[in-house]
């Protein structure tokens, strides 16, 4: 064994070597080092290491991006639309102020916002397009941090004074307008005449421009003072519905009955899951499928460990026989080859974890660099809704990926290690 182990094994009085002793680590390390006649085996071990590293890193990166994508969309969709929508049944919401105040007082409710909503044609110097107009009171708009906290230009002063509107940054760019410019809104829900309803057209100054980072909202929503919206859409003293924002979106089932009781009138509640069930279900299915597909990369790399160790066992049959004749037990040989294979998997997994973490922490900078080098748009806001590439690593999920890679690496070593331990010393020496 002098040519591969470097020194004879230290055998105790019982004729065995301690479990995972320094000698076992030494021999396993020697087997993985590249020597002239073992170059091919070392190449396989190297590819196994690279495969596991890239597989683990890819899994961590993709799952983090999927988590970040879902989290960003979740925050922005619910930051605009709320967690509950309270719609009237039987009669219009003319009593929206006391109803909203009572709902606002429910334990677990953050705030309730009465609003008027309608479609309109908006025109500016450069273009005309459809838009979703929402009428809310200035105080309620200020409580919506997603809007009031992301004002790109201007402030809420003009909105509070009445007459001014707040529009999205992409909508402003397409219309060719900025703060203090004016836009014209046209709605078919206008004045009632003997000849029918005539469209209503009004001009509104732009008080502020918001940018929430979600192209669908930045390019289509206009906020208008509630009183102006009631007049513009012929709502008089009523509202379309009441948006309810809660502290914990996962507790909507527990809050449904208290909100209905607090309304003190017939209402129909629609929670965020009912309104977005298809969208978030599709994201969850895509996330699970991506995890299964990318796990195959790790599995292929693990199979390389099996093939590499199997070839190593055949190549080291004589060395194994010498170890056995010098007193090494089957367990010692088994542990040597488990250590050899598991070392590849463990080091590859840790390297993949480090690589994945670095990429996730700098994902947006990497995207911008690749876009600049290739002169292409890798993450179109119009297609993916978001203006930046998000990544959010979850500790439990990352731990699961690391544990899965280590378990697969360990399982891959069992068969070759068992074959090594089963080598008969006499047959091993005779074959030489």
From TrEMBL:
The chain positions of domain MacB-like periplasmic core read 48-260
Q: Which UniProt keywords apply?
A: Cell membrane, Lipoprotein, Membrane, Transmembrane, Transmembrane helix, Transport
Which domain of life does this protein belong to?
Answer: Bacteria
The regions listed as transmembrane in this protein's record are 40-66, 289-313, 333-355, 398-418
Domain ABC3 transporter permease C-terminal per the UniProt entry, residue ranges:
292-423
Q: Which GO terms describe its cellular component?
A: plasma membrane protein complex
- Subcellular locations according to the entry: Cell membrane
GO BP: any one term: lipoprotein localization to outer membrane
**Topology relative to the membrane, per the entry?**
Multi-pass membrane protein
Q: Which Pfam families match?
A: FtsX, MacB_PCD
Membership in a protein family: Belongs to the ABC-4 integral membrane protein family. LolC/E subfamily.
User: What is the official name of this protein in its record?
Assistant: Lipoprotein-releasing system permease protein
Q: Which organism is it from?
A: Amorphus orientalis
């Amino acid at each position: 064994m002098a040519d591969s182990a470097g020194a004879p094994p230290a055998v105790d009085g019982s004729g065995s070597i301690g479990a995972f002793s320094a000698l076992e680590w030494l021999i396993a390390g020697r087997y993985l080092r590249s020597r002239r006649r073992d170059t091919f085996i070392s190449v396989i071990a190297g590819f196994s290491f690279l495969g596991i590293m890239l597989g683990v890193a890819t899994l961590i990166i993709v799952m983090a991006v999927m988590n970040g994508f879902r989290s960003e969309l979740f925050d922005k969709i619910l930051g605009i639309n709320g967690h509950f929508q309270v719609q009237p049944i039987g009669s219009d919401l003319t009593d929206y102020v006391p109803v909203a105040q009572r709902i606002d007082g429910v334990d677990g409710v953050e705030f309730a916002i009465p609003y008027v909503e309608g479609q309109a044609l908006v025109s500016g110097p450069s273009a005309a397009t459809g838009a979703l107009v929402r009428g809310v009171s200035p105080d309620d708009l200020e409580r919506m941090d997603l809007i009031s906290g992301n004002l790109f230009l201007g402030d809420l002063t003009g909105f509070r004074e009445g007459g001014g509107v707040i529009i999205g940054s992409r909508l402003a760019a397409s219309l060719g307008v900025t703060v203090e410019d004016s836009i014209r809104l046209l709605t078919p829900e206008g004045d009632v005449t003997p000849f029918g309803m005539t469209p209503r057209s009004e001009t509104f100054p732009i008080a502020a421009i918001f940018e929430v980072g979600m192209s669908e909202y930045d390019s289509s929503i206009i906020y208008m003072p509630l009183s102006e919206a009631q007049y513009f859409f012929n709502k008089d003293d009523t509202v379309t519905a009441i948006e309810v924002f809660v502290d914990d979106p996962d507790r909507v089932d527990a809050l449904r009955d208290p909100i209905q009781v607090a309304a003190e009138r017939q209402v129909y509640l629609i929670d965020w899951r009912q309104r977005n069930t298809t969208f978030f279900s599709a994201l969850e299915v895509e996330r699970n499928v991506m995890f299964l597909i990318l796990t195959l990369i790790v599995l292929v790399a693990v199979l390389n460990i099996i093939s590499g160790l199997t070839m190593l066992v055949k190549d080291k049959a004589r060395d194994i026989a010498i170890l056995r004749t010098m007193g090494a037990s089957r367990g010692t040989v088994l542990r040597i080859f488990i250590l050899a294979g598991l070392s590849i998997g463990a080091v590859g997994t840790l390297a993949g974890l480090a690589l994945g973490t670095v990429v996730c922490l700098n994902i947006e900078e990497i995207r911008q660099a690749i876009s600049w080098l290739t002169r292409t748009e890798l993450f179109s806001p119009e297609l993916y809704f978001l203006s930046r590439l998000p990544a959010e690593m979850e500790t439990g999920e990352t731990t699961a990926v690391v544990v899965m890679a280590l378990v697969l690496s360990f399982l891959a070593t069992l068969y070759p290690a068992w074959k090594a331990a089963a080598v008969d010393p006499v047959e091993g020496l005779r074959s030489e």
